[in-house]
Amino acid sequence: MARIRTFIAVDVSPAVRRRAAVLQGKLAESEVNASWTDSENMHLTMQFLGDVDETDVPEVCKRVAVAAVPFAPFHVEFAQAGAFPAADRPRTVWIGVDQGNQELVDLHFAVQESLAEMRFPRERRTYKPHLTIGRVHDGGASRERLAELIAHYRDFNAESCDVTEVLIFASYLERSGPTYQIMGRAPLNG
Q1: Tens-place pLDDT, residues 51-91
Q2: d(Cα 172, Cα 190) in Å, to the nearest integer?
Q3: What does the alpha-carbon distance between residue 22 and residue 132 come to, in Å, rounded to a whole number?
Q4: Rounded CA gap, 180 and 7, in Å?
Q5: At what angle are helices 14-28 and 141-152 packed, to 10 degrees?
Q6: By three-state DSSP, how is residue 174 classified?
Q7: Collapsing DSSP states into helix, strand and coil, what is residue 66?
């Protein structure tokens, strides 16, 4: 039986992608060894499911759709640069969410609870909506410089977009990087 690497996400607008690419360019000036997310692959991950049996994908799509129904479309503003585990120790570089944060948290919880019925594990960490723009691979002076730049751009305005649906993605890992294919759409109809 075929298995598909699957995740649930919210798409972002071209304007948000363009602004994120601007920030990536500014942060890349640190010369840190990082993998910068291709702008076409930027999204807000709601839940990573891992390898899912192909026969279970329709049920995943159905459960995500049911979870999304009560939610009305909402507006999200992206602002602030940051990093996990912390801005002064960057490993994952991100753009945070200002307006729309609570709506995303609530939507994540509804999706997670619906999928838990299929025995997908709940997240252990508190969900923090963010747009991953890069992953850092080494330390040293360049990482310190990156931390300084993240602090400098912490109030970076990265535009906004409307959230009208949740997407179910297949992820294919290739030498050139991951590619994503939409397997299902769950409109917000509330």
Answers
A1: 999 999 999 999 999 999 999 999 999 999 999 999 889 99
A2: 32
A3: 14
A4: 10
A5: 140
A6: strand
A7: helix
Q: Report the C-alpha gap between 9 and 68 in whole angstroms.
A: 12
- The amino acid that residue 114 corresponds to is S
Q: Residue 8: give its domain's CATH number.
A: 3.90.1140.10
Q: Are 101 and 65 in contact (CB under 8 A)?
A: no
Letter for the amino acid at 1?
A: M
Query: What pTM value is reported for the model?
Result: 0.93
Count CB neighbours of 22 within 10 A: 14
Reduced to 3 states (helix: H, G, I; strand: E, B; else coil), residue 64 is helix
Number of structural domains (the chain) is: 1
Q: What is the mean pLDDT of residues 24-49?
A: 95
Peptide linkage before 85 cis (omega within 30 of 0) = yes
Q: What range does the domain containing 9 cover?
A: 3-187
174, amino acid identity: E
At residue 12, what are phi and psi to the nearest 5 degrees? -120, 160
Q: What would the pLDDT profile of 132-184 be if each residue is shown by its tens digit?
A: 999 999 877 888 999 999 999 999 999 999 999 999 999 998 888 889 999 99
